[in-house]
Amino acid sequence: MLEKLADIRREYSRGGLDRDDLNPDPILQFESWLKDIIAVGIPDPTAMTVATVDPQGQPSQRIVLLKDVSEAGFVFYTNLGSRKAQELKTNGKISLHFPWHLIERQVKVCGTVEPLSKLQVSKYFLTRPRESQLAAWASQQSRPISTRQMLMSQFHQAREKFAKGEIPLPDFWGGYRVIPHEIEFWQGGEHRLHDRFVYRRQSGQDWQIERLMP
Question: DSSP string of the chain?
Answer without folding.
Answer: -GGGGGG------S----GGGS-SSHHHHHHHHHHHHHHHT-S-TTEEEEEEE-TTS-EEEEEEE--EEETTEEEEEEETTSHHHHHHHH--EEEEEEEEGGGTEEEEEEEEEEEPPHHHHHHHHTTS-HHHHHHHHH--TT---S-HHHHHHHHHHHHHHT-SSPPPPPTTEEEEEEEEEEEEEEE--GGG--EEEEEEE-STT-EEEEEE--
